[in-house]
Every structure is written in structure tokens, then in C-alpha cells.
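--- STAGE predict ---
source: upstream dedup step, 1 unique chain passed
mode: sequence only
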Amino acid sequence: MSVASIGDKALVAESTGGIKIVAPETEPEEFGRVDPRGGRVAAVTPSPDYAEDRLVYLLVVGDGPTRVERLARGDTPRTVAELPPAESGGLAFVDKVLTVAAGDELVRFPGFTGIGRAENPEVLATGLGRVTAVCTHADEVFLSTVSDRGAALRTPDRVVWTWPDQRQAGGCAAAEGTLSIALPNAERVDTVQTSGGAATGQPEPLAEGEYGRLTGLTAIGDGILLAGTTNKMGGTPVPTDDRAVILPQSGGGGDARM
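--- STAGE serialize ---
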């Protein structure tokens, strides 16, 4: 399950294509659906002008070309970009520029204005390992990746931290002075304190073993971490999985939300 912040709410995209808007203490709102065909939805992000246009972008992987789909609430999705086939990836808008990871490559579409198709991608980086998410803070790009060295948090040109014992990575979240990564197999989120883009201490685990496999990750409101679980395809499901959950803060209590 992929998640993305829209202020104090979040977009939740199920791998099977359903999209909802969720917030603490409220019922989920249906937004729309895309057809992943034989693949899955790997990422979701709002338009940089979401407050005005209410558009959402989704990344579909695993079935032919990697597709970026644009969706208005209750409308039919439209494919705006295609990239080579990949089994994982992420997307975000960086300084309003559509930026997409597919497989081990990160590209941007500087000519795309939200109208028509996104063409002529510029390659930002390759050989990154298998990218599983893209997150941003102050227009700086961070990635969750997996390689033969394990899971990692990194920028396009440097590694911030590596987890050699982890062979899967989920979403990431970036804030002032912190980077966080979801580690599905470990059933936790790790947060790394940073300064100048470098780690300043050991990762701090959050919600270890509380919700099962945590995959999507984003920060909502004033830096509250919200994760998406993926337990119906692995892990230990409960009747309400898959879920969007608010993670505890440094030993505080968590608050699960559908």
C-alpha cells in the first residue's frame, strides 16, 4: 500500500488500484481507481497544484511499460508517461517537475506542465539499486533502494544509511533533520537523524512488530508519520488489513486508522 501526504490528510493507494483519502478520526473517502492490469500500483503523489486542480498521479509497474497515470476524483485515469518495464519505483514532484524512478533509474520530465503527455525524460541517475520509493524535502530528493548491499536510504548521488540485513525496502519520508524508511520484513520503520545530508547517529526503530509489514510511508501535518501495511500478501493479516496507520513517536502510543 502506497501513501502520500496532502497536508493533514493522506492519499492511500492500494496495489490493486483503489485510491482513498484518509485522516485521523474520520472515515476514508473514496477518490477513484486505476487498473493495474497484471501489475500493481507502486506509488501515489498529489499534483503540485493539488489545492486547485485536485489531481493525483500514480505509478503502475509490473505489467508491460511502467506507466504514470493522472486521475481526477471519480474520473477515468489517463496515462501521461511510459518508461521501460520495472517491478518497482516511485514518483514525486520536485520543484513542480514530475520525477519518476523505475527500476534502478531516476528521471525527470521538465517539459511536462500537467497537460498532454510527459515526453523526453532527462536521466538524473542510474545504477541506484532497485528503487522502491521517492520522497522529498525542500526540493531535495531521497530514495529507498535495495541492492546486494541491503536496503538503503540515499540521494541520487550518495548513500545516507544502509541496512545490510534487510532485503526489502518500502516507502521513505523526509523532514528537517530526519529520514525514515519502512522495512517490511522487519515490520518496522527506522528513522535516521541527519545534518547536511549525512547521518548523525544510529537509526531509531518505530512500531516494531505492531502492525505487520509496513510498506508505504509519508509525513502528514506537523511531521506525523503515517504508514501503509501490506499484510494480505504476506505477513500476519488481521480482518482490517490492509491499513493506514499513524506511527508512535519515540516510544509513544500508535493509533491505527483504516
